[in-house]
Every structure is written in C-alpha cells, then in structure tokens.
Amino acid sequence: MKAKRILVTFIVALAIASAAVVIVVHSSTDTTAKPGDVNETRIMADAATGNNWLVNGRTNDSKHFSPLKQINDQNVASLGLAWYLDYDGLME
C-alpha cells in the first residue's frame, strides 16, 4: 500500500512539473511580438531567415547582406525597378 501511495505521489508530481514546463515554454515562445518591439533577440532570429529586415542593414552590423537565394548570378540581369517614391524635400 505504501509503494502505491509513493507511485501515485510521483505521478502527480510529474504531471504538475510537466504542466509547469509547458506553461513556461509557451510563455517564452510567444510569437505575438508587436512591430515596434525590436530587440537583439528578434533581430538575430529574423536575420537567420533573411525574410524580415527589422533594422536598417538587416542586422546590427549593417552589412546589408541578404541570405535569400531567389536572386543569383544567372538571373540578376533580368531584375528591374519595381517601385519608387518621389517626394518634395528641403533643397539647399
């Protein structure tokens, strides 16, 4: 009877610990970051894929390098201007 009580206590403790781990992991991997919440962690995470440039130059070292593979030396000659913005500014 004592061994059964120890086993049940162990299983309950294991279930509670597992639930706590799930809660901690879920809260630490929250992907609902707001656009203005840019920090070193987000910059480095997005820099690995190259999809999002959260700062000018893509990373804090501002190398402006993109790891994307869609443009290469075989198709670069076919690129063209997609859009531009002309605005009135202060001319000195």
Q: What is this structure's SSE topology?
A:
Blueprint: H1 2-28, H2 40-49
Give a description of the structure.
There is one protein chain. With 92 residues, this protein is mainly α. The chain has 2 helices and no strands. The longest helix has 27 residues, at 2-28.
List keywords for this structure.
92 residues; mainly alpha; 40% helix
Brief synopsis:
It contains 2 helices and no strands.
Helical element count? 2
Give the class from helix and strand content and strand pairing: mainly alpha
Determine the strand fraction and express it as a percent band: under 5%
Q: Work out the radius of gyration.
A: 25 Å
